[in-house]
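To illustrate the input format used throughout this study, we show a single complete record. The first block contains the structure-token representation of the backbone; no residue identities are included at this stage. The design step must infer an amino acid for every position from geometry alone.
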């Protein structure tokens, strides 16, 4: 929903996913706070503690503090959009864990603040199912959007030439209509499930070929994104798609801290092949020896490419 409302790329972190790393999430939340990104979190089914089941909250801030008896403690400042209930466990408004110094430092009044509460990171992971970070940038950033069509039963044959004139921070997304928009007012004739999409950003190498500078893993998602820094030069942005339904409207969304150039360009068969090979090699740089050849397997949630 945030992607639809804001137009900016979002990342969902599900706490129960295999390979989920609490340390990585905490570092991501802290850096997102520093960049002033929009953050929300959603509860799982809960039965007490003052939280509401399957409910979305605003994630306002994260803190790492020192407690006299508990040592280093990680706290989150959370806001309930409606005021019916608040967290009643450790670090709630009336919790005995608060010291006068910590209340003053974090702005937690003994009388509480409407809608707002604090909780520990451990409790957060237990009570909340997932969180979403929306990477909204300031108005100083430049926005580029270009439409494209993803045709059924064939790989995309169009790309975008990306000209970077000075060192630039970029957020690049490939966007298709979300499931909830299909069959509605915006896309009344579009039915079926979302396609598996991804992309690869190519750059010429010293040998005259191309290499992947960045990739977005092929996934069955409405938006796939990559965050990157680029040095001045010319790059080729190639969509990757595994799609068997009707022709699918999609678009590129490029947000940059400096002005860049973005222009469409057709691709030949060899260039399309080179893009898929570069994607697979970037996903699996070492490869696996098999009957005298080296196989590079680009595994992703939405499909696998082998080169």
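Output of the design step:
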């Amino acid at each position: 929903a945030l992607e639809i409302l804001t137009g900016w790329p979002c990342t969902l972190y599900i706490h129960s996913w295999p390979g989920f790393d609490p340390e990585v999430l905490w570092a991501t939340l802290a850096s997102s706070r520093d960049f002033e990104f929009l953050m929300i979190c959603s509860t799982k089914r809960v039965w007490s503690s003052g939280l509401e089941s399957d409910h979305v909250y605003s994630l306002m801030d994260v803190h790492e503090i020192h407690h006299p008896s508990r040592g280093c403690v990680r706290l989150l400042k959370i806001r309930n959009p409606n005021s019916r209930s608040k967290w009643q466990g450790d670090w709630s408004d009336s919790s005995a864990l608060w010291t006068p110094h910590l209340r003053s430092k974090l702005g937690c009044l003994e009388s509480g603040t409407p809608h707002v509460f604090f909780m520990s990171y451990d409790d957060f992971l237990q009570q909340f199912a997932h969180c979403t970070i929306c990477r909204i940038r300031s108005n100083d950033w430049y926005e580029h959007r270009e439409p494209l069509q993803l045709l059924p039963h064939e790989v995309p044959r169009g790309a975008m030439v990306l000209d970077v004139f000075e060192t630039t921070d970029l957020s690049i997304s490939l966007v298709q209509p979300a499931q909830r928009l299909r069959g509605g007012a915006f896309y009344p004739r579009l039915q079926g499930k979302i396609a598996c999409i991804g992309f690869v950003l190519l750059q010429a190498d010293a040998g005259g070929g191309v290499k992947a500078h960045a990739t977005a893993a092929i996934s069955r998602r409405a938006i796939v994104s990559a965050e990157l820094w680029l040095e001045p030069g010319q790059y080729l942005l190639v969509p990757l798609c595994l799609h068997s339904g009707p022709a699918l409207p999609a678009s590129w969304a490029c947000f940059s801290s400096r002005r860049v150039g973005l222009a469409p360009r057709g691709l030949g068969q060899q260039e399309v092949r080179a893009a898929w090979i570069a994607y697979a090699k970037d996903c699996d740089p070492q490869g696996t020896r098999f009957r005298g050849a080296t196989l590079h397997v680009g595994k992703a949630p939405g499909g696998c490419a082998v080169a």
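Structural context for interpreting the output: The first strand starts at residue 10 and ends at 14. Helices lie at 2-6, 22-34, 100-106, 121-127, 269-283.
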